[in-house]
Amino acid sequence: MFVFVCAGCGAELTAPLSQVVLPVHAHQKYGNAIQLPVLMEPGTFAVEPEPSGPPWRRWEEIDPDELAARGIYAPVHILSDGTPGAVVIAPGDVRGTVLIPEKCGGYCCGLDGADGPNLACEACDLPVASRIDDCSLWQAVWLAPDAVRRRPVDDADAAPLSWAELVAEGRSTPPFEPITAWGGPRMGSYHWWSWSPRWEAAAGRALAHLLAASEGRPVTVPDGLTEEVFQRALDILLPVGPPVRRAVLAGPGLPAPDADVDILIVPVHPQTGETWAPPSPAVPAHPVPLPFGVWLWLAFPEPHLPAPASGVMPDDVLRDDPPAPHPGGLFRSDPGVFWHTLVRLPAVRSQWLREILETTHRAHPRLF
Q1: Count of Cβ atoms closer than 10 Å to residue 312 Cβ
Q2: Degrees (nearest 5) of the Cα angle 117, 338, 250?
Q3: Is 361 strand, coil or helix?
Q4: In the chain, % of residues over pLDDT 70
Q5: Rounded to an integer, what distance in angstroms lies between the CA atom of residue 84 and that of residue 87?
Q6: 155 with 40: CB under 8 angstroms?
Q7: Are the beta carbons of 115 and 105 closer than 8 angstroms?
Q8: Rounded to 5, what percent of the chain is helix, strand, coil?
Q9: CA-CA to 297 of 20 to 30 Å: which in 102, 125, 261, 325?
Q10: Burial class (CB in 10 A: 0-12, 13-18, 19+), 149
Q11: How far apart are CA 32 and CA 318, in angstroms?
């Protein structure tokens, strides 16, 4: 466990926190006038390893060797030259800060952090963080990496959960959820059932890895929800006809994959960031990462009908209501996450994959 303190005066700025993996959807911009929830769970923090914030440089201004060293292999519009290592936490875990009024700009319905840090240390006035709560952005506080320091609060090193313990815990991410937005018939808020933004972001990253693993050949994925999420985009972007590469779900609690499988869709450990690998190194399949909660739902889908219960409802029992409605539209991967991932995969240097990148950048209405 750690607390983050002000680099200027040492005042504590957060509650005790434990580190987890940076969510795939951390920088997602979703829809228009959408009210997204808090990004991080209480009591956790994650670190953005890449530079973030100003100053910015255009692609043409950066030496190719520097780009390769940063792990970027295809053109992007602009890149941050800011300090790497920004720390993201839940707004409720902030302590000892005050808003900086002149830095509280926002695009629409809240703060977007575009003016630089908008939270200052209450003790010494040093700008230390940016509160984000504008519409279509995940609510979060980003601690400036050069303005805070990490301090341990105990000597106990809690071991991360094992893969088996994670499966037993069963914290999966549902594929559908109610989306809330502003601007209804009476200019209030309203909601509808939709594909989860978390799933769209996770699929955007996984789709980029699936394309890289395809080697320019058709790819098939398992029937059911996995097919609904990935197959349409793969069929649009990849050629038809044999030979076909086969992708399957693999991970803790599932049977060992066959030796002739080409691609494994596997979970990422939510605490360590480790990508699951089969115990036998004899399986040469290409891994495609999914956030653990999304993978768990695909691997072990929960029943559609909740269990009936009478009397006082226990915390872990759902009401006996009708199941959540299936969204009316087709599933669409998040384009921003897809492009962000693809330009950072070495395979994008191949001509066929670069053409896919350029095609989707020009907008592919059937995909996005």
Answers
A1: 6
A2: 115
A3: helix
A4: 87
A5: 9
A6: no
A7: yes
A8: 25, 25, 50
A9: 261
A10: middle
A11: 31
Closest by alpha carbon to 354, among 121, 5, 75, 111?
75
**C-alpha span between 264 and 125 (Å, rounded):** 50
Closest CA to 48 of 85, 16, 19, 14: 85
- SS3 track for 154-209: CCCCCCCCCHHHHHHHCCCCCCEEEEEEECCCCCCEEEEEEECHHHHHHHHHHHHH
Say if pTM beats, i.e. exceeds, 0.85: yes
> Sorting pLDDT into bands at 50, 70 and 90, what band is 54?
confident
Closest CA relative to residue 270, chosen from 18, 94, 1, 29: 18
Q: Is residue 360 within 8 Å of residue 367, measured between CB atoms? A: yes
State the CB neighbour count (10 A cutoff) for residue 154: 9
Looking at per-residue pLDDT, the higher value among 130 and 191 belongs to 130
- Residue 204 and residue 209: Cα distance in Å, rounded? 9
Cα–Cα nearest to 128, from 136, 120, 116, 138: 120
| pLDDT value of residue 147 | 97
Biggest alpha carbon–alpha carbon distance for the chain:
67
Q: What is the DSSP letter of 16?
A: -
- C-alpha dihedral, 228 to 230 to 233 to 234, nearest 10°: -130
Distance (Å, rounded) from C-alpha 287 to C-alpha 281? 12
Q: Mean pLDDT for the chain?
A: 88
CA distance readout (Å), 138 to 35, 131, 349: 8, 10, 32
pLDDT at 128: 97
Q: In a 3-state reduction of DSSP, which class is residue 119?
A: strand
Measured CA to CA, the distance from residue 55 to residue 249 in angstroms comes to: 41
Q: Residue 184's pLDDT is what?
A: 56
Is pLDDT above 80 for 63? Answer: yes
CA distance 362 to 180: 29
Residue 39 amino acid letter: L
pLDDT at site 283: 62
Which 8-state DSSP code applies to residue 84? E
